[in-house]
Structures are given as structure tokens and as C-alpha cells.
Amino acid sequence: MSDSQRDVLRVRDLSTRFFTEEGQVNAVEGVSFDVRDGEVYGIVGESGSGKSVTALSVIDLVASPGKITSGEVWYRNPDLAEEFRAERPDAVRDEFVDLRRLPKGVRRSLRGPGFSTVFQDPMSSLNPSLTVGEQIAEAVEVQRRARANPRSTRSRTQGYGLGKFLVDSLVPGRDYTGEESHERAIELLDQVGIPDPAQRAQEYPHQFSGGMLQRAMIAQALAGEPDVLIADEPTTALDVTIQAQILNLLRDLQQEEDMSVVLITHDLGVIARMCSRVGVMYAGQMVERGSLSDVFDDPVHPYTQGLLGSIPDLENPAPRLQPIEGNVPSLLDSEMGGRCYFADRCPKAMESCLHPIEMHDADAGSDEHEARCVLTETDYRPEEALPEGYFDGGDGDGGGGGRETDGSDPEAREEEVRADD
Amino acid sequence: MSLARFLLKRGLQGVFVVWGVVTVVFLLRFITPGDPISVIAPLDASPATRQAIAAELGLNRPLYVQYLDYLVGLLQGDMGYSYISNTSASARVFARLPATLELAVAATLVAVVLSIPLGVLSATNRNEPVDYGATTFSLVGISTPNFWLGIMLVLLFAVEFGVFKTSGRGITSARALSALATGNLDVFVSWLTYITLPAITLGTYFTALITRLTRSGMLDELGSAYVRATRAKGLPETLVRYRHALRNTLIPVVTVLGLQLGTLIGGAVITEAVFAWPGLGTLVINSITGRDWVVLQGSLIVIGVGFVLINLVVDALYAYLDPRVVSD
User: Fold this and answer.
1) Which residues cross the membrane (chain B) (predicted)?
2) Is residue B246 part of a domain?
3) Which residues of chain A neighbour B322 with C-beta distances below 8 Å?
4) Residue in chain B lying closest to A136 (CA)
């Protein structure tokens, strides 16, 4: 790794669980990935695969009954590292600090200048009863006040209590956000390509279209000049034509501001277009990761292969798209055995898949291509394949249905196997 | 649509509502048993006497003439003359109105001051002792009958401790407030000894209701996507809670407050009875039992107008809190 490719974020073995009445749900389990300076890192997976919870865990916004149960989130910040080196040696490593070991106030102070987020649905992610400009100005004001009080990062989010709030709300002419912040908010709206920004800043979210609102969300996320912008399905709620505009905007801003972007999406096309490296998530685990070409051109994990096989190829159209049979497992702790979670839907499940699987180096050519699959170590041996209906158990759907379809079309299956060998 | 146009539209709607109320109230006399002549005439009155009374009251004219006459009278502030109480109906009604308004406003104030902070505290400390205390209080408050609570408060604080007065109104609130302004604290405190117990009695149900509403609204808002986004941009929790979540929580709260205040204008009959409070509620009951039609009609119209006016104020508040109301 050269100097220009320094990491800004290193997530290690992050696990987040939800403690519900039905039992413990392992939404994120042992996820690790690195994000480099100025790159767009993609996290892709189906709904329910844990990608959004991963993002929320990084910024420490997992809501009850969810809880981060283990793992480390190393964030490169030389100033913080210096500040805590003596006090919390276990939380500091070179220029990195482990966010999970830092006090809550410090973690909170990094929202904005460290990390900011663009959420999926801009309509519900902005407060309907405040103007768009006011909401962006708030994000600017937080950082402006933090800079005005630079004693230490810890004091940043303190010192604004109920008393000050009441004075600011009740005394005419006083407000939390100042004139400067409003001006900066208009600049930001201009930067994300909103026409007539001074006028639009005074409008409410319901007066914006979806695409314009997502631009405003991005403007709000830029307010703190973040090191890492986390974009959680930023285009999913938008029309296709608007999606392209928003993606272009994100890429332009990423290059202008030289920030890192973690792009979370279920859309492989978005990943292919935007990302330099990618992690594939399934059932709360990262099952394959590597550079874009590693994962897209040379996938090892059958899940990744299935995902890529389920998108239409315009140059060599297949007679039928190949869906991945079955459904994502429930992630309930009690129902997750110590095995590869994909085994029940995997066309290449073998007896060796019935043990917990670790991340392995996936190919000799690339040192960052890894997959959580036995096929990284061995070739597929049909004689060790699990018998049909092995995972059927009592409920009779899911994996079993998949097996049957596979069985009815043995040629296709064989061909797929050959292609992968 | 501007705020002024919005309010103008609502105001015009209100005029039609009032007109409807007046019409129904006018017709009420003709569809309920008993006629005004029998109430006034002696039991053994001859048909000629009865006719003379009808002519005197204008009851022998066609219905539409009586209706128009009544409407014109109302527009001039004349609600008719009550032969039973031997005074004009408006004099009776407006003599009672201040007491009712005073009690309604006091009860609402008690409710707002207690319930909103309690609801917020409860929501932000979910499943902690404060929350359990607040939810228990609101459950008890909602299920306690007014008359029992009133009597218990009188027994405890008026009879046993002698802190408050058992009944009556004392001086008017206007005089009490001017006494406070001029530093005449004794007068103000004596006014408080009259109004405190009825206000608490009437306000308890109200407080309990709004506490629940605030708590559940606040929990909803705090779990919403925009609150998460607001936290993600690093805003201090004070602002997340009060500038964002509470403001949106207040939208339904204001609606319920307005509706409740509207019903209080109709008079809190039971509370007024317990504390012998000279309000509209007792007047309405007395005029029904005494067949004092003119006073009953006048009271109902004043109550209707009050309800419409309060709703107008609620609409204005609503438009202030939720910009979508005005622009749609």
C-alpha cells in the first residue's frame, strides 16, 4: 500500500445485535473493512443483510434495542490520537483512535467533521417543520461553535443546555443559528446544484422534489467538511433519471473535497459505476471483499456469483435471469447454526460448509481479495455435496425450494459449476 | 396561500358554523316538549289569556318571521327576555361567562404547565423510574372521576388543612391580576385560594391526557428518520429534543388542547357543582330544569361561538407549528 493510499477508517470485527422479544438478532457479525483516503468504498447486499446497521454502527447511531456488542472502529485523526495517547493508550494506535473506546461525547463531536451521513429517504430525513436552509445552517452552526471553542474536542458538544435553548427560542432576535451559518447554507445549496439557492433555503422540505431534497441532504452532510461521507442507499428512493444526477454529484463532490465515501447500496450497477473497492454483505457478515475488478470480474463466493448472475447482461442476453433461490435467513441467533449462512441457498454447498467459515485470501494475484467461503481453499467436489433438502427442517420452504429448481435444470447447474472451476 | 388568507377562510367557515348552531338552537324549542306559554301562564289561564301571552311574545307570527326576528336580535346582541328570571338573557349569560372562562383557562394552564414537561421527561427517560411515575400518574388521572377528586381535594385541603376555600369564586381574575400588578399580594393570594382546587380538579384529567399524548408523540418523533439524521449531523441533544422532536410533537397536542378548551367553555358542570362555581355549566342545567328557554338558547349560542373562536386560534397555532398546513 503506497502512502497516497492511507486508510482513514479501519473497521475490525464489528458486531451489532438487536435484543428483541423473539430473541437476539445478529444484524452485523464480525464485519471488517478499510476505507482509504479519497476513495469510494462500496458495501453491497440484499435488504436485511446488515449494511445499513454497519453504517449506523460506525457513526454510533444504532438505536435501542440494538447494541454494538464487539469490534473496533479505528479512525485516523492525529489530533485525537495525541489527545488520548496518555490517557487511553489502548484506544490509540499510531495516528488512529478506536472510536468505541473513546468517551461518548468525543464520538458525538466527530459527527459532522469526522463522519456525516446521507440517508436513504430524503423526504423523511429532514424535519418537515423547519426550512431546508435552517436545517443546513444548524449543521454549519454546530461546527462553527465547536471551532469557536477549541479547548478540546471533548467540550465541543457540551455547553448547550435547556437554559440556552429557552433563551434562544424565547428572546426575539436570538436564534441558535447565526447569519453566517445561513449564508454558508446558501453556498452549500449552490454547491450541490440547487438553482436559486437563497430562495430555496427559505422553503420547507415538502416544497422540494425528491432529487432536490437529496441534494439538500448532501449539502447538509458537507456542512461539517467530513473526512468520511457515509451514503446509505442515497439513490434508492429516487427516480432513475435523478439517480444518475445524484451519483454524478456525489462523485464530483468526493473529488472536489477529497473526502472518502462509504457507499451502501443493493444496486450492483451503482457500485460498478462509483466504487474502487467493494465489500459484499450477506446475513450480517461480509462474505467477499476486494477491489472492484476482483469482486466483479472474478467472484469467488457463490453468493457474489449469484448476485452478479441476477443482473441482465445487455451484450450476451441470457434467455432467463438467474435468481438466487430462497430467502435471506432470519438472523435470529437461535436459528443461526455454526455454519456458512449461505449454505442453505448455495448451489455448491458441501459438508465442509457446516462449520463456521473465516475470511480467506481468495486469489493469489490480489492480496486484498478475500472471501468467506470454503471454495477459496478447495475446489467444489460434487461427491461431497449436501443431499437435497438438507436444510428443509420443519418449515419446508426457503432452501428446499431452491434445491428443487436446481434439480429440475441440471444442465444449467453443471454449466455454472464448470464455469467457476 | 398566506396565513391571513388561511385564517380568513377558516373564519368564514366559522361564521357558517355559528349560523348553523343558531338555527338548531332556535328550532330546539319547537321540537322539545313543553311550550313557553305554559311556563309563564297561570295553571288555570283561559285560552284568551294564553293567546294574549302568545301575541305578547310574538309566538303567533309565522315561524320564518320569528326566526328572522331572532337572528336580527342576536346581531344586535339581544338574546331575548327571560320572563322566568325577569331579566334579559344576555345579561344572565354574560354574567356567568367570565367565571367559566376563568376556570377553563386556569385548568388549561395547569394542564399545559404540568403535562408537556412531564410527557417529555417521560419519553426521554423511557423505562426509567420517572417514566413509570409519569405513566402511572396519567393512568390514575384519566380514570379518576372529577366529582370524587373534587370532593377529596375539598376534604383534604379545604376542610382538613384549611388552605383553600371550599366553594365560591371570590373576586374576578381581572381584579386579582391588577392586584398582583400593583403589588397587592394578599388580594391575589385570596383569589388563588378560590380557584386552585377547581382548576386542579378540572385540570387533572386534562393533564393526564396531554402527558400521555406528549409522551407517545415524543417517542414517535425521537425514533423518526429525521431525528436520526439530526443526530448524525452532530447537533447537541438539547436541540434534537426540543427544537426538532418537541415542536413536531406539539402539533397533535395543540389540536387536543383546543378541543378540550372548547368543551370547557361549555362549562364543567360537575366541577362547577362541586365547588358552587358560578359558571355557564350550572346556568345551562338550571335553565333546562326551569324551562328558561331564552337563557338556554343564549348560553348555547355563546358556547358555540366560543368553540368556533378557540378553533380559529388553534388553526393559527397549527399553521405556525406546521408550515404544510398553510401551503397545501
Assistant:
1) 12-31, 103-124, 136-159, 188-210, 250-275, 295-321
2) yes
3) 128-129
4) B233
